[in-house]
Amino acid sequence: xxxxxxxxxxxxxESKVFETSFHDIGxxxxxxxxxxxxxxxxxRGYVTLQVYRDDIIRITMNAKDxxxxxxxxAVVATKQHIAIEVxxxxxxxxFATKMMHVIIHKDPLRITVKDQEGRTIVSEQKYGMAYKANxxxxxxxxxxxxxxxxxxxxxxxxxxKRGETYTMWNTDVYAPHNxxxxxLYQSIPYFMVLRDGKAHGIFLDNSYKTTFNMKSNEQxxxxxxxxxxxxxxxxxxxxxxxxEQYTYITGKMPLxxxxxxxxxxxxxxxxxxxxVRELVNTFLTKQIPVDVIYLDIHYMDxxxxxxxxxxxxPNPKQLIQELKERGIRIVxxxxxxxxxxxEYEVYQQGIYGDYFCKYIEGDIYIGDVWPxxxxxxxxxxxxxRKWWGSLHKFYTDLGIExxxxxxxxxxxxxxxxxxxxxxxxxxxxxxxTHRALHNVYGLLMGKATHEGMKEHLxxxxxxxxxxxxFAGVQRYGTVWTGDNRSFWEHLQMSLPMCxxxxxxxxxxxxxxxxxxxxxxxxxxxxxxxQVGAFTPYFRNxxxxxxxxxxxxxxxxxxxxxxxxxxxMRYEWMPQLYTLFQQASLTGLPVMRPLLLEYPEDEKTYNxxxxxxxxxxxxxxxxxxxxxxDRAVYFPEGEWVDYFTNKAYEGDKMHLIHAELDTxxxxxxxxxxxxxxSSRPSTMTAQTDxxxxxxxxxxxxxxxxxxxxxxETYQYESGNYMQMxxxxxxxxxxVEVTIGKKVGKYVPAYENLSVVVHGLAxxxxxxxxxxxKSTITMES
Length: 779
Fold this sequence. Notes:
Immunoglobulin-like; Glyco_hydro_31_C; glycosidase; 51 strands; 8-stranded antiparallel beta sheet; alpha+beta; DUF5110
């Protein structure tokens, strides 16, 4: 309550960098090798080591008993059968896989993991695993000055996360976010370490409040307020391999519907059918592309979920159908709070079905949210999840294909900002308090929503936007970064936030374009829309009581520029959709920090104001007012300005001029991007496809373009198109090889055009061995 006063810096509140009141596990007493792994009894605790894959090891400590090794809902991986041979060398034990070498020092019990080349991945020296009598558990690891930290999910501040402490406790934070705002809406207790160009990862699978202390130059720690110390070490050695390993454990994003990649317009709130129709008419009249209009809480009948206000929205089915015929979908907000109302059917079902969260004594937990006094579904229970999922037939019957989950930390209007931590959840037969399960509440609401929508859509892909989540959230939903502000600083902060979410296994993410609260202005909205056009999730959203910020709100000049970049989003759709399909298979993000592609280049390690789309496009936005020139760092290679075709030498910084109508975009020489014409929405068929080739004098670049119907799951049974493209450059020729298409999907475009940029006078240009610029889309 006094955190925003000088009391917060009272001398009695001083904290130490590292706590020493934990009880160390002590020395090893005995060990046994079992089928499930190596079981160790320590002086003050028990440890299990399990090899999940040759490049992933799981380490679990319980201070009181043999570890149960019960995973949170984040984990979907199955342990592979990897035979290990433990050697007892007196003072230590050792075993190895094809990718890792594990050394266990006996007195005191300390664990070191090395890679197959002998490089230390993680090690423990003075401190190791420890616990407190109150149930807290902690692990210390050695670190070097060369260690750089990434991930941690949704965190403010710079890209490199060393030097700070991070708390995982899903929290509704409306107050302006700043670099020290911690915690936020998402809790992803995972991070990646980059050291000398090599990477490894750690995932702490614990749903209690967890804390990661990265402040010391000598060691770091991760601790949990309860439960077992249960963590995975991923060997890398590249950042991309760490992401593959992490998403092997927690799952990968499903391929989203193509319309979810379009432009989304939102407001807290568009409060009537008339306002929504006027909004849509303006988009169509001005020929500004749009795919989605959002309905915030005012569409409901007194904020009751699964209802429409009969006066403001008297015929929602007709509205939704009319908009869909015009190429636009509706996505409504659905919060977890169910209004306490004996005459409200959803509340009745929750009571009769025993679906709401309760105290151990049996009383239903009631908290105050938008509807007033409300009950909260216990999403840790399978029966409740199925019930909640079934309720979404209300929306799908109206023609709705996407849902927006908000307030699902869960947020409650009280001092603690959330549910009473002594509430007892069913937890699928293993009851636990809200203190233990708070961080997975939003994840499990997302699971219930996604699975319910998928069932009721009968073959169509659902879209889910969620504010809260845990590790594994990518399996169910898209994440936006919550209640930001219309500040330039929040535009700047959004880049490292989204990049670190991408490095945390969440490829589909983005901020509220223009800022949610505070009054935006024409210049800020224009620059933010330019960024949003290349952010995986592209939504403009603003709050009640602040300036409307639709594309036309700030004058003709700004409107024209904003319209152009929204159109550009649709022009880049073939390239983006290919990247999303690759993300669904590999776990790699669409929006990438440069270090992901250039881990040997130290200049990329804390590059906060640039990002990449895929492996060959650099975006360097202007994110300060009245600025038209900025420094841009180019990694190795040569890079071509998308608008001017001017080439820039890599491995150095360049000063780039960018007036308000220009977003600096650069494509690496020797590569290509796949573009099309703009469309009013993704419901309008794509009728052309053009490969833009950026000539070089050497090198080979390959990528496989992907397409399907963008709406159904028929791609799982072969109704897709994959088309390999190879660009080979030398001093004399640029050769584009279009490989044989794979899959049964036939796109609407019949021809593929090829355009080359920067061809030297001495070079020829050929497509499949012939001097032509168009080929037919035949198999």
